[in-house]
């Protein structure tokens, strides 16, 4: 059944990809001048310190990507090596690819400039295929996952460029460009890889055990505590502090709400670890796009309450429905954690954009909604309001999420088709949700312990 | 026996609390001006950066609260969902409540100002009921815990206001206002909820297993490494660096001492995980109140040695005695980790306060012991020493801890009585220390694995 | 067989060591002036802020030492208490010892100056015996480990002083002075403690189980994400940003390579958790010595690819060979994670040093290669190049690693001999790789769960 030859060729392709990266780094990438020694004849150095002031936030995001996502997906009882291992593998591949891809979109003089910002962007990009991986968890080979991530990150970079640089939408915490994109791309791939109708029941290993559920809480708690860093890292000016405050409050409100709604809708009113592990985080996604806006504490809390509620209801009612009717198996429920909350965030961004005034945002309008300021961006122009008006910006926000959905779903369908019909090996039913097919797993130890 | 109706009404009450919070945020809370865009006609912004310079320390404290406390309490073998889950639930509720409560005590113009400082204070406040939860672990319903935390945080805010603003005691790392308060409040509640004398033996699930003990070490190690951030976050001037150094050294000395004393007093001289998980941290508590003072490295190390010794001896001899004689079940031994070390810290603060001279603290006397400086606080006044003298400040330190104990124990007794006799459901003996009553728990998987 | 008396005397010795530390702190250690209040008559304080700007990186390194190393070593299925516990014990002892030892080498006026830098250095020093502990894991008593760490850290401090201050080699991330030293010292001790030839088969507890392997991934992922902090914390100027970027890229490339090579060389092309847990980190070690140099992105990626490859091949082929032929049991494979990658780093440093020009490093030459600048270090001298030339610096780099190997291996042999033949108790074959000998372990719980 299982042919090592297919594995070997897959891994060899990935090695070739790594070597191609090496060559591209050599040809195109140079240190940014912030990372180069100041010239002796020009002693005004010291800008380096300023440049790395976002380093602590970068490190927080590192933990979210490598520890947070990895452990969040360890909840399956026989898939912990894969959850933590493929996260590491995929993120390590994607961060390099992102430096190159995003670099190609912003080249200067034919060279890509490498700085702390490049690797912050790279970590954010790594979140995208990791979200998609959640929709597919246990149903693909590692080769499929890795190949998917390469295609997906290229499309993500293109869509992000369109949304932020061409459409000029606001998306400070990336709920549109990162969470919605990753979730719907992954769901589209999952749709293409869905089982035949006689194979639609849950796999025998598709469940948690007591220990694996607690491992998953490592992921949940680290994602929770560091989410304000994810949302605020790209914010400018005082928007950074607002992003921290709004994200914190939205997460707190979503958490309380998730617990309550989980208990109210569950069997015998017992709390469900799936909701606790995931829906508590929905507040971070739902506030993402608008986190640097003037929401007020109540705005952030309200968004959190809505997100927590919808996320738990999604897990409880929508996911089983999608599985049974569409054979869409969303293993981690990314639709409930990333998909729907991101849609909420996009809608919220249209509402708040429609309320923007120069008077409220003052000097920061230019940073947050650059298209609302005249082309040359002077103070006079801001006061004069020669740019896009508020309701027009609201329309662009909705256009941005629509475009993202189209590219994500379209790209996901094509990628899924390629993964299914190209020469990739597909997992059989009984090979799913367990590590043994691709990992050396210790023999059962129950006898001796 | 078990009536879902009681659960439903409890959770509904918590939802109402969340909605009341929403309304209060809407009515009273506004962004601090550090989080508001600078006016266009006043371009001297940039103060934002300075304002968020404590952000990395805030994030460290976030990890302590959500990961540290949560995992430290996973040591019970069948209570891991509750330990990590209720920590998340309680902290998410309390942080919102703290922003409001502490805000009401410092309103300006009828509004509460929201800034990074608010949420740093909120995370610190969340530690208080989490400490109390340790004394009660496994013996209450989640509804009881959450209701307790609301009352407790209100009392904590009042006591802290009295101690710091009225009595002007020093308590940089919060050992008096946070640790002593949380521990003795929790112990008083536990006293009220103590079992009848024929039910006093240990519950059948009240113990660790090999895996749960290692999960608990996640909590221990993160609390250990980030404790210097907890103690130093509110320190001003060079006191911040002293707080870091003193906390680090005290923790290190307490750790070495805990291991040695654990081995010396244990059965067959074997190390005991309870001591390793908890007493190693006692150095952080015991140095808390005095961490920004001029202890010298030897002072910090000496405090650590004393704390480690007393904490291990407390676990080994005092806790069993309290359980057997008073039926006081302190599940996590918070008396040994937080209670007694906090008393040591309070006594140390009286000793060090009695030695304070203007010559030693110079310009920082005002920050650390404001009452020792004349009312207008000018340099001349400091030199002249018109304020409280050193032995008087020492007396106030002791008065501060005494007041804290009275409020904590009194409040705890009343709260415990309410939890016992009001319409709350109480856990029966065989429902304790296990998740199953309030959580969906996977069926035994031993057959298939 | 087992005499508690030997344990008691060992622990008593450690307590005496702690008390000696207390006395030495009292006699010799004083706060650095950055941690002392500014004098009232000299109001130019505020330098404190600058002084603690490395605090976030310090905290990252704290996590690496206490969480990263501790959990990385939990992979043995019955040795998790020891892995996390002894890491905490050893690190707590060593950080104090390091403040003293490194302080004695840099005293001013007979006093040791205590500042944030002291404890950054202390955490780095703690890595050294923790690396050695990896080579010995499960084969020593805690008393042996702790005594070893005291000797080792003294030798480490001496060797580091020779290498950095006398030979003036560059070693920004410590691959020569920390990783090579720790690995080869540990291997030399392991060689001295090797079993007799009739006892050479693997111990019955020397293996992972499913849960312990996932615990180990906590260590791996935290070491991975914070490694850029370890490598960059001592870098000056723009070298800090380069150290971050180079370490990040090298780790990413090593990770992708480790996965691919692991699959290609393993049985049935399955991934091996040993490689995933360890070899993915080899990129951080291999780039360490040169991380602040002008490697370019391609240089960092190339070093990562080489390190990942060699590390996996080492685990697959070299380690079994050493075990079978030399009876050298390197439990964690520190030779593959720290030893060989550190040698790669040393060789790379010689190559890059030989290419250094004043034109490329400009004003930073003095920080990075001080010996290449004339004695008085003026700009004129740099331009004139009156110091050591590039190929001479390359030679010193090689001399530095050679000296380090000699001191590490020589010191390890002597220390190992002392541990074996002095009055220390040695573990018997069946006492190895399990906690029970030195820890209270819960009784088997399989019956009731």
TrEMBL record, chains A, B, C:
InterPro entries: Ammonium/urea_transptr (IPR029020), NH4_transpt_AmtB-like_dom (IPR024041), RhesusRHD (IPR002229). The keyword Cell wall biogenesis/degradation does not apply. Residues 21-434 form the Ammonium transporter AmtB-like domain. Keywords: Membrane, Transmembrane, Transmembrane helix. It is found in: Membrane. The chain crosses the membrane at residues 12-29, 86-107, 143-164, 176-194, 214-236, 243-265, 285-315, 336-355, 396-419. It is a multi-pass membrane protein. PANTHER family: AMMONIUM TRANSPORTER (PTHR11730), RH50, ISOFORM D (PTHR11730:SF60). Belongs to the ammonium transporter (TC 2.A.49) family. Rh subfamily. This is Ammonium transporter Rh type B. It comes from Drosophila arizonae (Fruit fly). The gene is LOC108614370.
